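Two records follow; treat each independently.
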Amino acid sequence: MAIIPARGGSKGIPLKNLQKVAGVSLLARAINAAQASPSISRVVVSTDHDGIAAEAQRAGAEVAHRPAEIAGDTATSESALIHTLSTLDEDFDITVFMQCTSPFIDSASIENAVRTVRDDEADVVFSAVEDHSFLWRLDDATQAVAVGHEANFRPRRQDRAKHFNETGAFYVMRTAGLLEHEHRFFGRIGIEEVPPEHAREIDDMSDLTLVRAIASTQETAQVIDVDALVTDFDGVHTDDGAYVDEDGNEQVRVHRGDGMGISRLVKSGVPVMILSKERNPVVTRRAEKLNVDVAQGIDNKAHILSAWIDTNGLDPARVAYVGNDINDLEAFDVVGWPVAVADAHPKVLAAARVVLDRPGGRGAVREVCDLIPIPAEAAGSPAGPTLTSLRTATGHPSTFTDSQPSTQQQRSLLTNHAASARANRKQVS
């Protein structure tokens, strides 16, 4: 079994375990890695925080609620492991201790370590990376003293014995030994060497910024498995430019292929909405042509997006939002699939779960639509009635301002044809 300790009281980064890398929380990334290891049959998260517990359950893990006496800064990870084991209804020969602060855990490496212990080649195996550093410390007189090498002997890297740096990502242990020694290291200790790219660990915000940048360039999705799609308009459906005539009227350029992609989703009953900060009739006209929901003039996208998700009976974790600029980051936090166009702002690229190959206005919307799977039985189904705009009681298009409507008012703006949308969605759920 795998145990993932995840306290809510991290100091360097508040609620660090819920921070997202490539659109997925650090906790969920650890859970996913454990679940992908064939030898691991149960994954349990030990936590003292309700939000972390909810995220663990969303990701498919069990939760062991940690008592306050072992949830403080001085509590050891071992105390959380032993407490969790005491709450289980079955015994496990091998315990895998994983840490959320390592965002790039490879399930194949976990599996190798488990097999080493299972095959009785070691009692404990931990993840480590080869390290060629010359280490130093300061003595009581603040003089530098060599650690693990002679100061006057500088052998070449290839002539030196291998040294390893403990990554902290995972530890595989015989459960009986852990319970006896109350420590992660005992008996015969082995190393599962991991590549440097899997050895990143997050302690502070600079670490988090770095791993987000790395993930945005390395991790791509072949499928975006969602039930609904929401997009920004400017910079997503357009290239973020505009044509302005002498009277101040604006025109924008859109991509015809985007329309075909949206049409495929709409005909299959997948809810789609355009959510824009701009107050421009062209946004409404485009939404009407595509036959999708629209909300524009929105300064707080997260509120409207949450209301739309709630009205349509959707799971936020199965909704994709496509954005390009920093005002989309609040919407990214609402959904499970934040998606960035190729030419998005660097902060948006770093926060995205998926970065598209195409820029805004150049087929990005078509690309994301093509990544959303549609079951064969739904692909040819006729389109049901959908909203073409979010309207007020007077029938006029909504134009929200900084003075946002109440939650109930927001929901009332989104209720038209909601039942039809849900009925259509049953075909593809």
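The next record belongs to a different protein.
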Amino acid sequence: MMQTATDTRPAFTEWLKAQQDRSGLVGQLVTAVRLDRQFPFNGSPDDVRKHLNKMQADGDMFEAVDEAETDWLCY
């Protein structure tokens, strides 16, 4: 999803970094994001999926991105 000029929602990865108190798979994803210096920090959910694919991440991390994306879209 591309953000528009009228979209006041923060970039997905910026929003994700702020979710540091989350538990479960999203919490694990947030921890990975905060530790990964190569993470696409102004990226979209698809950018995150591409990065995770490149890093050969566990399938649970892709599920976490899906869950986080749903929450972000509702933000």
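Discussion point: Residues 21 and 49 are 22 Å apart (CA to CA). How would you locate this feature using only the token line?
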